[in-house]
Amino acid sequence: MQGQAIIYDPACYYGDREADIAMTELFGGFGADFYAGYNKVWPLDSGYKARKTLYNLYHILNHLNLFGSGYLHQAEGMMRCVISEHT
What we know:
extended
């Protein structure tokens, strides 16, 4: 393998495609054309909006842990939203 390039992704995972789409919407999102094109090729399942909050809660809790209380209000709001959708 000497002389060959190797790519290592320390954050790779196997999971629900909706988790990736949700992440794109967390901090501003992509343009409307991206989401329209994605949904044309492989539409998101019903209930995505509720699952999106749960998927993104992980990232907000991680930011709360890493960067502090600036993310607390957002995390609490997301948790209230998730709880209200499941009660």
